[in-house]
Predict the 3D structure of the following.
Amino acid sequence: MSIPVRLGLVQRVLPAYRVPLFDALAEACPAGLAVFAGQARPQEMIEPGTLQVARHQAAANLHLPFSLCWQGGLLPWLETWQPQVLIVEANPRYLRTPAAVRWMHARGRKVIGWGLGAPGAQSGIRGLIRRAFLRQFDAMLTYSQTGAAEYRAAGFAPERVFVAPNATAPRPAAPAPARPDSFAQERATLLFVGRLQARKRIDLLLRACAALPAGLQPALWIVGDGPERATLESLAAQVYPAAQFFGARHGAALDPLFDAADVFVLPGTGGLALQQAMAHALPVMAAEADGTQADLVRPANGWQIVPGSLESLTGALEQALSDPARLRAMGLESYRIVAQEINLERMVIQFERAVLAVLKG
C-alpha cells in the first residue's frame, strides 16, 4: 500500500526514537509528509530527532501547568503545507488540536487521532468531556488492543479503530541468536536498557535480585545514564554488588549485550527497548503500565509484573531463572513476534490503512 495524498502529522515533540517511523511513512507517501513538532522541556530529557525523509516544521511550544501545551504556529503551518489528511495526538491537554481539526473539517479534509486509549471515557462528567473530544476525529490509531477496546467503548465504530503496535525498529534481518540450554558460568544475566530515572524502578530490580535464593542470583547489567545513576550505584554497592553499570550505549553498541543476556527486564515505566530485546530472542519482563506492552509481553514469551511490587518482580525472576530451557523457548517466541507481528513495517501498514479508510468517507 501507499498513501496517495499529502499527509500532515502533529506531535508535541519529535523524539529520536520516532524518526524511523516518520521517515518510513514519508517513503510511503509520494505526495509528502510533514511533521509539526516543538521542543520538550529540559527536565523531560527527551533526545530530539532529525528527520531524513519527512519534513519537520518547528512548533513554538508553550508548556503550561497541568501538562497543558499550546503549540504556536500550527494554523499558519496548515495554511502553508495544506495536508489532505492530518494525524494528531489524541490528547486533550494539547490546546491547539481542536482548532486544527476545525481548520481541516472546514475544508472537507480528514483528521485521525493517535493515542494510548480512553480509560476514563465511559462514565461521569470527565467521561462526557473525553467522548466529546474524541468525536471530532474521523478515525483512531492506537498502540494496543487495550486502547482499541477503550476507543470502541467510547463510541468509535470498530472499523474506524486501527491498532498500530508500538515499534521502533524494523523486523530483524539476522537470525535469532543461538543460546545453550544452560547459563554461562552457571549464572543467568539480566539486562536493563533505558534512562536511569526514578520512574524506571531500577531500585526495585536491585532489591529483587538480592531477595532471590543465592543459587539463582544473576549477573545484572544496567545500561543507560541519567539523573539517578549515582544513587543507584550507591544502592547497588549496598544491596547487590553483582550489578554492573555500563553507561549509555546506542545502536550497534547494544548488540553484544543483548546477545549475551538471558532475560530482559523493565521494572518500571517505558518500554522502547522491549522490541529490540525481542529481536535478539530474549524473553522479556515488564511492569504492567498503559497497555502498550500487553501485545508484546505474553505468557509465551515473558512476564507482566505488578508495577511497584517487589514480591511480583521477585517471584517472576525466580520462576524465570529456575528453568533455562524454558527461557530459550520463550526467547524464540519473542523473536517470532517481532519478526512476524510487531515491527516498524507492520506499524506503517496500519497508518496506511487508517489513512485509506478516512479517504473512503
